[in-house]
Amino acid sequence: MAEFQIRRYRDEDQEAVKETFIIAMSEHIPSAFLHMLRQPVVQATLACVFCTLLASSGSMLLPVLAVTLILAGARQLVDYSFTLYIEACHKGGLDCVRKAYMEGVDSCFWVAESEGLVVGTVACLPSRKHAGKECLELKRMAVRRSHRGLGIGKSLCRSVAEFGRDKGYRQVLLYTSVVQADAQKLYEGVGYRRVGESVVPELLAKLLNFTLIEYRYKLIEGDG
Ligand SMILES: CC(C)(COP(=O)(O)OP(=O)(O)OC[C@H]1O[C@@H](n2cnc3c(N)ncnc32)[C@H](O)[C@@H]1OP(=O)(O)O)[C@@H](O)C(=O)NCCC(=O)NCCS
């Protein structure tokens, strides 16, 4: 079993951190596409196009071609949405981890290192939605596929919780999406509670029912 250690970010980790996070996030493209295909509105649209073209042309070729083209276009749209999300992550701190996470008193970035390689990442910073020391937000959780199932995700969660307690925070919050099944299992397994769901505000996300799930973890025992 590969050994690993969790340690704070160093400047030389910058490129490996970006790569680890981007690869892990890109893995969700196929599951997001499947989620899209499962939506009744998408299935109804495809069925409508297929039947209309079949009735009007009397041939199978045209409807099959049209549905294939729509599916290819839909897949491109999902790819594009992820590209936008990853760009937003870059601008939101991944491009300069030190500035975004290592200079503030209540924020931090950790990496999991194994045999000299960065194989996992996690960050935290004060939640913008809450005042004072109410909530710390966990972000940028990712583990390289080659090192999954070894407890790295759990250890990264623990680093954030210990940091939050030391800094006097009451809870940790995080958001994950409906297609990130492994992440949901990880968070529930370490004691996070699902407290809410919301659909991403963009039109495409609304149409496809792309839900964000909010999780919370209490740092103070017996806290209401
Ligand atoms: C989510 C993720 C970080 C988990 O990392 P990990 O190092 O494999 O997690 P761990 O080894 O600590 O596993 C923790 C728990 O998660 C669950 N789990 C993790 N991967 C799982 C899988 N493939 N299948 C089933 N359960 C899984 C298990 O319950 C496990 O607990 P157990 O070992 O006691 O059974 C990793 O899968 C990942 O990077 N995914 C892609 C990026 C992502 O979605 N990040 C979350 C952003 S919100």
Can you tell me about this structure?
By secondary structure, the chain is α+β, with helices and mostly antiparallel strands. It has a single domain (about 1-224), classed as Gcn5-related N-acetyltransferase (GNAT) (Aminopeptidase), CATH 3.40.630.30. About 50% of the residues lie in helices and about 25% in strands. It has eight helices and seven strands; from the N terminus they run βαααααβββαβαβαβ. It has helices at about 15-25, 30-40, 40-55, 60-90, 95-100, 150-165, 180-190, 205, and strands at about 5-10, 110-115, 115-125, 135-145, 170-175, 195-200, 210-220. It has a seven-stranded mixed β-sheet. A hairpin with a 2-residue loop joins strand 2 (about 110-115) and strand 3 (about 115-125). Helix 3 (about 40-55) runs antiparallel to helix 4 (about 60-90). It is elongated. About 25% of the residues are buried. The mean pLDDT is about 95.
Set out the fold topology:
Elements: E1 5-8, H1 14-26, H2 28-38, H3 40-57, H4 61-91, H5 97-102, E2 108-114, E3 117-126, E4 135-143, H6 152-166, E5 171-177, H7 181-189, E6 193-199, H8 203-207, E7 211-218
Helix pairs in contact: 3-4
Coenzyme A is lined by residues 24, 27, 141-143, 148-154, 176, 180, 182-183, 185-186, 189.
GO molecular function: N-acetyltransferase activity
Organism: Conger conger
Keywords: Membrane, Transferase, Transmembrane, Transmembrane helix
